[in-house]
Write a structure and sequence with these properties.
Blueprint (H helix, E strand, L loop, with lengths): L7 E4 L2 E4 L5 E5 L5 H9 L4 H9 L1 E6 L6 H10 L3 H4 L5 E3 L6 E3 L11 H7 L4 E5 L2 H7 L6 E3 L9 H4 L4 H5 L10 H15 L5 E5 L3 H5 L5 H19 L3 E5 L5 E2 L9 E3 H9 L4 E4 L16 E6 L5 H9 L4 E6 H8 L9 E5 L4 E3 L16 E2 L7 E6 L5 H9 L7 H7 L3
Parallel strand pairs: 3-9, 3-10, 7-8, 7-9, 12-17
Antiparallel strand pairs: 1-2, 4-19, 5-6, 10-19, 11-18, 13-14, 14-16, 15-16
Helix pairs in contact: 9-11
The structure holds zinc ion.
Zinc ion binds next to loops.
């Protein structure tokens, strides 16, 4: 690795300029581009509309699988999952044969832009809606790093900040309220106003998007509230970059019923009990709103049936769009091979894949449609910057499809 010039840092093979102007990157969790197009045409998003006309707007691709933690890590590492090592929330450890939930930064393999900026003397704040993600975002970071989930418990020692409730002016929000995300943005605005941070990474929650499609009142109100806060950041003179970790699609039949392939059940029925184990990497302690159902799973052959026979059978199931062996999947989607299954299965646009019905509780949907992500249909995400690109980055943006994890490069290097 070459040494970075003064005023620059190098992380995972890319060079970033230290900011001259406070710079905010928002991960608008689950913000499918359809929320933006619907919200803009309905006149709900005046500030985002202004960014689209005066700054830069494009559609970028999220990393696979299109899940929250792998993409948040990609965004702050500026690199795909094979570099930082996080390709799901949940995986099967091949050596111990145990299923493991990733709950902290211990499996993060690379450095991050946030940590490197902080090491170079930039005042960095990372705020994530959920505390588990906060721990990952804080990997190696010397700065402010907290979550609204644990706002009340933030300490100088652990989080680089205390009295967060007083800072934001309201109590720690409920885990399943839209305020979890708004609290992230309001805390960022307060830090910006107080001149306490030069670079902020603000990562929201996708609870609203799992529950409400574009045009539904819950989504419209939420997106309007987010837009207002973006307006405030622009007023304060910050450079604002916005991306999403993934899109969001109805995983439903035309009549609105959840459309799910229970792959472990189906394959074990065909080949005999114990033939396969299906791991859903979307699994998380907070799954009330989607029942741990997404459109991407990893499959492990646990009996005597060959991987090829299992793959052929899985590919024949209606609703399964793509089956790839672990090695091929890791290569194609730049995922870490050590976390791959014997094969992966991706659902079609409207189909989620689960393991067995008893592992997925859909009672938490509370009457709303099953909406989720994880597959290829949720790769397109909005990518925007509040200021126009300089000539060099205009050339980059027209020469290739952007990735959501290009956002720090564009926010720090792409605007003058
Ligand atoms: Zn998400």
């Amino acid at each position: 690795m070459t040494a970075a010039a003064i005023g620059e840092i190098r992380v995972n093979g890319r060079t970033y300029r230290k900011p001259a102007t406070p710079t905010i990157v928002i991960c608008f969790d689950g913000c499918d581009p359809r929320y933006i197009s619907q919200g803009v045409s309905a006149g709900l998003l005046p500030n985002i509309s202004r960014i689209m006309s005066d700054g830069f707007y494009a559609i970028a691709d999220a990393a696979m699988p299109t899940l929250t933690n792998p993409n948040n890590m990609s965004i702050i590492a500026g690199a795909p999952p094979k570099v930082h090592g996080i390709s799901g929330n949940y995986y099967l450890d091949r050596t111990t044969k145990r299923e493991v939930m990733i709950t902290d930064a211990s499996l993060v393999l690379s450095g991050t832009v946030l940590a490197a900026l902080a090491d170079a003397g930039v005042r960095v704040a990372a705020i994530a809606a959920k505390d588990k993600l906060r721990k990952m975002l804080g990997s190696g970071l010397k700065g402010i790093c907290f979550s609204p989930e644990r706002a009340r418990d933030a300490t100088q020692n652990e989080n680089g900040i205390e009295n967060v409730e007083q800072l934001v002016g309201r109590p720690t929000p409920d885990m399943y309220s839209p305020d979890l995300s708004l609290f992230v943005l309001d805390a960022g605005i307060k830090l910006l106003q107080a001149g306490r941070s030069d670079v902020l990474y603000l990562s929201l929650s996708d609870m609203v998007q799992h529950s409400a499609a574009p045009g539904e009142e819950l989504a419209d109100t939420f997106n309007k509230n987010v837009d207002e806060r973006i307006g405030k950041m622009l007023e304060l003179g910050a450079i604002v970059g916005i991306v999403a970790d993934h899109g969001m699609t109805d995983k439903c039949s035309p009549d609105g019923e959840p459309q799910v392939v229970y792959l472990e059940e189906a394959l074990n029925k065909q080949f005999g009990a114990g033939s396969v184990r299906v791991i859903c990497p979307i699994t998380d302690p907070f799954v009330k709103h989607h029942g741990a159902l997404g459109s991407f799973v990893r499959v492990y052959a646990t009996g005597s049936v060959s991987v090829q026979a299992l793959m052929d059978a899985a590919a024949r199931i209606p609703g399964i769009a793509l089956v790839l062996d672990g090695e091929g999947a890791a290569a194609r989607y730049e995922m870490p091979i050590e976390r791959e299954g014997d094969f992966i299965a991706i659902g079609d646009t409207y189909t989620a894949i689960g393991s067995r019905p008893e592992e997925h509780d859909l009672s938490g949907l509370n009457g709303h449609k099953l909406r989720s992500h994880g597959g290829l249909s949720e790769q397109p995400v909005p990518f925007m910057l509040s200021r126009p690109l300089n000539a060099a980055y205009r050339a980059v943006a027209t020469s290739r499809r952007l990735r959501n994890y290009d956002i720090f490069d564009f926010a720090l290097n792409g605007v003058d």
